[in-house]
Structure formats: C-alpha cells, structure tokens
Design brief:
Structural class: alpha/beta
Number of helices: 14
Largest sheet: 6 strands, mixed
Number of domains: 3
Distance between the termini: 43 Å
Strand order of the largest sheet: 17-16-15-18-20-19
C-alpha cells in the first residue's frame, strides 16, 4: 500500500493521509514531482512510456517523476524518482515551477537537473518506461511539435522551454459565448487588454464559434483581429474582410429532416442559408436569437425550397430542460451525414458531418503553417469538445460543463472572471 500526504490547494499539508488508487476527497491534493534531465553536453533525456500504462502508453516524455511518498519533500521525492526511473543520481536541481491541477487534484513541482554520465548508463524502470534517447536541443525542439509528446507535460515545463527557445504557443482559438464573452455577452476590459498584449507578442488569435460570420465579425473588429475566423461551428472559415475561404453545407435531405423534426418537436428553427438567417416561425425566440446572430431573421416560405437552396446550419431553439433529450433522440434519426450537438443549454445545432470546430482549426493551422501542438483552444460547451481535443493545449472555462472539464488539458477561471486573460498571461506572454 502506497501512502501519500494530503495537501490543500496552496500546497500546505493537511495532516491527512491518502492511499494510492483510492478516491481523493474533494478539496485535497497529492504531490507529484517531475524532472527534465540534461546531459553536460546539452542533450535531453527522453523516455518512452510503457505501452501497458493506462495513461499515455507509448508516448514520449522528457521527465522522470511520480507521486511523493508520505513524509517526502519535493527534493527527496525527485531524487528517488530520478534514481528509480533512470538509474541516474543528481544532487543539484533547478526549480522551474508549480502547477495546481484541480481536475486531477494534483500539485506538480517541476525541476531541471544536469548529469555528467555515460549515456549508456541509463536503466529503465520495468513497467514504467521501455526505451530512451538522448536528443540534441534541435531534435528535442522538433519533438515538442509532434503528437508524440504529452501536452499537459509541455504546459508544465513551458517557462523553461520558452527560455531555451524551444517552444511557444503561436495560435489561440477562442469560443465566443461562455468563453470570450462574459455572461452579459460583453467583452471585458481584462480580456481586451490581454488579447491586445498577445497580438503585440506575435500570437495569432482567432474566434471559433457556432455563431454566423456576421455574429463574429463585430467581436473580431473590436479586438483588432486579423486571423481568419471559424464560424458556424466550423462550417465556414472566413477572413475578417468577409472573404469566405471554406464553406460546407448540409446535404439537402439531412437539412430537411432536421427542420421537419424540429417542427414536430415544437421548437423554433433558426436556419442559416447563403449567409442569411431564416426563422420558422418568427416569434420571440427568433427575435432573441438576433443577439447571437447580429442578423434579422427572414420568414420561411417553404422548408423544402430552403433545403434545396443550401443550408449551412439548422438550430433548434428550445428549453434547457428538453434539449438534452432531443439531442439523444436525434442521434438515432437516419441522417446520411450530419453532426449535431448543443452549443448553448437551449440550442441544438445540426451541420454537415464533416464539419467541426476541430476540422476547421486544422484547416486554419495548415493555412498559417502552425502545427496543432502550437495551438491553444478554449471553450465551455459540447460543441467545443473536439476543438479542445485537437489543440495542443485544450483549456476548459471554469463555467464549462463537467464533460468538457474532464476532457480538457487545463481549466481556467470562468468567463465572468476573465478566464481568457488568465490563460494568455500564463501561457502566451
């Protein structure tokens, strides 16, 4: 049985004992220490995690490390972990930083050490690692920009990587509602200033939203963004000048099915076609939707004709109580190639099956020559899940759903607490 000391979020021991493998009570944390090992010649030790490990099996990591045993301080822990996982010894460690992960209830302490040893003297710990390599700084810099590295570990060592000139995030993709905008639908002064500083530092910033192009352009204009925008949940990629770089419409039969089912279920339809918004029927909900779209809705003369005309997105405006059930029900309908998910508690959106914020972000990254590992994406809803999973660092808002927080690499403050600004200051400046 492995025992750990329990800590509060500030790193103070609580006097309680945790047992490895057992659930950590709410409000308590355990300590993990990691060390990046550099040789006297400047090379970096990288180890491949055992394929059998339940988390990140087969991935490469640039550290030795693990949980502190009961009674161990960070230095005692990291010396032991270094010896156990590599067979190497060191007495001098450079402290890099501390990262408190509320999702895993872990306090990470990160270090760097230098060893002067025979490069063939590394011994791997059975069940933990199965291969090692000494990489030159240039080789390690290249490895950091591949999916073979663990994104959460990269973020913990980011201060050191930036100092060495090895790695920096280059693109920030922001959901709008519930992320960039506060609960009043406004851009806060704190987020405005942080984005201005990120742009001045050379970081590309884009908006990735379920809103229309018109509904996103005002925000991009106020922030001074020049990067192409992801709108309609990835159904369109467009320049801030309005020039469309990519657009994908629903199959006509699928669009008609989504609209007809909406009518049967008594929801209000907000339908985007050729850059225009149509409401069916025109009522208080379509009037309210204008605050998201920035466009006055047109009446629908015929659902069939609208489907043939070409539909980018069908949105159901219902109640937050009924949308989850509708979502599950509609997944069973015979759509040929349609993706659907909620974007707000009262919205269920339908779009082409090849459309997602993640696919659009991949397309944008290729356009800008930015790799996915160099991208930070932020969001709060179900339509952001693929986006956060694709980005090198996926950050959930403090107001995000539990499902989104669970899948994210990190969690920031809420949209009413300038969570976007916090991420920019921590990872980009």
């Amino acid at each position: 049985m492995e025992l750990w000391d329990a800590y509060d979020a500030y790193g103070n021991k609580t006097g309680e004992t945790l047992v490895r493998g057992e659930l950590i009570p709410d409000g308590l944390y355990h300590m993990v220490c990691e060390v990046l090992v550099r040789h006297a010649d400047g090379s970096v030790l990288c180890m491949k995690r055992a394929e059998s490990k339940p988390n990140y099996g087969g991935f490469w990591e640039a550290t030795a490390g693990g949980s502190a045993l009961q009674g161990e301080d960070p230095l005692t822990c990291i010396k032991r972990e270094l010896r156990e996982e590599t067979g190497l010894s060191c007495e001098t460690f450079r402290y890099i930083g501390t990262d408190v992960d509320g999702q895993s209830q872990t306090i990470y302490h990160t270090f760097v050490c230098e060893v002067d040893c025979g490069k063939d003297t590394v011994s791997l710990q059975e069940g933990e690692t199965e291969e090692y390599r000494w990489l030159t700084p240039a080789e390690f810099k290249a490895l950091l920009r591949t999916p073979k590295m663990i994104a959460m570990q990269t973020k913990r060592f980011l201060p050191y990587y930036k100092e060495q000139g090895w790695f920096a995030y280059r693109l920030l993709a922001l959901d709008m509602d519930g992320t960039l905008l506060n609960s009043k639908g406004e851009l806060s002064p704190g987020n405005r200033l942080a984005i201005k500083e990120a742009l001045a530092a050379g970081v590309q910033v884009t908006i990735s939203t379920g809103r229309s192009l018109q509904g996103a352009l005002w925000c991009a204009g106020e922030l001074g963004l020049t990067c192409p925008l992801i709108v309609y949940n990835g159904g369109m990629l467009a320049k801030v000048t309005g020039e469309i770089l990519y657009s994908k419409e629903m199959l006509p039969a699928d669009a008609l099915l989504a609209m007809e089912e909406g009518v049967k279920h008594g929801v209000t339809l907000c339908i985007w076609s050729k850059g225009k918004l149509y409401g069916y029927p025109l009522n208080e909900r379509t009037a309210d939707y204008v605050r998201f779209s920035g466009v006055e809705p047109l009446p629908v003369e015929s659902l069939e004709e609208l489907a043939r005309q070409g539909v980018t997105k069908v949105l159901w405006y219902g109640t937050k109580e009924e949308i989850p059930g509708f979502w599950e029900e509609m997944k069973q309908k015979p759509f040929a190639n349609t993706h659907l998910c909620p974007s707000q508690p009262m919205f269920l959106e339908f779009f082409h099956g090849e459309v997602s914020k993640a696919a659009a972000l991949e397309r944008l990254g290729a356009l800008l020559n930015i790799q996915r590992e160099e991208i930070i994406a932020m969001g709060d809803g179900a339509n952001d899940l693929e986006l956060l999973a694709y980005a090198g660092l996926g950050v959930a808002m403090g107001n995000a759903t539990d499902a989104v927080k669970k899948k994210a690499d990190a969690v920031t403050k809420t949209n009413d607490e300038d969570g976007v600004a916090e991420v920019i200051k921590k990872y980009l400046l």
